[in-house]
Amino acid sequence: MITLAERINGQFLDVKKAIRERDPSVIHELAKKQTEAGATYLDINVGTAAADQEDAMRWLVESTQEAVKTPIAIDSQKLDVIKAGLEVIKNDVMINSAQGDPEVLDTYMQLAKKHNAALICLTMNKEGIPQNVDTRIEIAAEIAGKAMEHDVDMDKIYIDPILFSIPVDQKQPAYMLEVFNQIKLISDPSPHITVGLSNLAQGTQEKSLICRTFLSMAIAAGMDTALMDVLDIELMDAAICAEMLLNKQIYSDSFLKAARP
Amino acid sequence: MEIANIVDKCAGTVKEVTIGATKDEGGTRGKVVTIGGANSIPFMDFDGSPGHKPAIAMDVYDVPPEEWPEPLLKHYADVIDNPANWAKKCAEYGADLICLKLDGIHPDKGNKSADETVSTVKSILEAVDLPLVIWGCENDERDNEIMPKVSEAAKGEKCLLGGATQENYKTITAVCLADGHNLITQAPVDINIGKQINILVTDLGFPTDRIVMFQTTGALGYGIEYCYSIHERGRMAALSGDQQMATPVICDVGHEAWRAKEAKASDEEAPQWGSFADRGIMWEAITATTLMQSGVDIIRMNHPEAVSIVKKHIENLT
Q1: A250 touching B, CB under 8 A?
Q2: Which sequence spans correspond to the domains of chain B?
Q3: B199 and chain A: CB distance < 8 Å anywhere?
Q4: Do B233 and A253 count as a contact with CB atoms less than 8 A apart?
């Protein structure tokens, strides 16, 4: 599966401190550790650490690139912060994320096209996050339509139907599986499906167990990408095992070892 | 109406393996054979590159085969107890590689010594300048005793040595690594074991671009469909990006086809089956051309006419 490693985020205290003090060693270590753990992308989010988020994003991207060549996902809700990150990017890149309003999508699709970037699009719009399956699918279809309109390869589009934490709404995980199944049907080839996996277990005990159980169910329903804790070996192993059980990898006695990074 | 151009791109590519080394490369071969390289399904060049054409390895045995029927034997009658001359004959018949099968080292088939076997290998290296496949007798104890000596004698020639099995892989892998040869990894018509043995030998540090996989072959009428579907599944996995399956494949068509009763029964025994003189050739050729579609890179063969039919078929498809 495609993994976005979540640790370079200003909401974690060590990263927050590193941004404030412009200390790249913390970022270098996180970049290396997450790459070794098998991250496809390193997600970079400045969080609330800095007054000047654009400058902080540039510094984080540059610091990460000093340590590794792993593709980066520039994670911000603000277009200017994303653009700041894109200015200094050297390798493959992903934009995380755009909302599903048509005019917003136009802007982000053009940006993705210009930088040959992958793009995560959220199934939410001005009216907020839909509380049902149908509206999420409608927005997903709009996103796929916009990608075609802007001639962005569907393989570059990642739809995030937005996973809530269990304490917020315990009905969500089950109906999210239905959303995954339907997103696969909106186009052929279909876009990727991604979630912020750690959100699910916010405010719970047994975070790792909850995440890896849902991850296995979600992979079976068609999700192929997640923003997650790649340093959690059991979580990464669950993804490998789920893909083997779905016959996406040929079994061998050493399948786990062979598929680990 | 415009018809969409639907090209199916594959994420993975089968690794290229080169067998043989010329003088410049530290060996004595007149030519080398490179196989693999496919990143599309066999013979489909509009999706991607189907890679190198399948190569034909013609068998030479270190002891005369016991049960070869007349239509096959007659082409080798004068060389059947002389492997070097036999290899020369195969070169004349159009072989791309010589496959020396060391059945004679088996305790039940001659129990030949290491010295005798090494001199056979050397005589073939001198007689022909084609790259060599050298395959043990599948008795673990004898293979582990003789193959290291054979490997050392052919050091620098970049031969393809076989075979490493799940139960017995360490010795042959170590000597291939030390002497610079390529390695056959062997499984009993089992995709899971096929993958496992590749993982085991790479764990010992053996490079994946020197591995050729062998799933025990079934001839037409004798399990070819099992063999076909395993090859096909392995190749599809390789093209989807499975690194452990992205190695070329060898199959043993000649030996299996000429064991079939359809190839061996005389005109008197099976008058309704068509001419005894042609049946075995057809059995071998059809087994080969069928397996070619499943994704194979080296085909071991015996009969010169079957070789010529298969080579023509390959040319027609490429």
Answers
A1: yes
A2: 53-317
A3: yes
A4: no
Are A252 and B192 an interchain contact pair (Cβ–Cβ within 8 Å)? yes
pLDDT tens profile B268-281: 999 999 999 999 99
The answer on pLDDT for B5 being more than 80 is: no
| Nearest chain B CA: its distance from A230 CA (Å) | 21
The residues spanned by each domain of chain A are 2-259
CATH, domain range A2-259: 3.20.20.20
Residue from the list B191, B199, B233 with its beta carbon closest to the beta carbon of A254: B199
This prediction's pTM = 0.87
For B293-307, write each residue's pLDDT tens digit.
999 999 999 999 999
The topology under which CATH files domain B53-317 is TIM Barrel (3.20.20)
Classified as helix, coil or strand, A50 is: coil
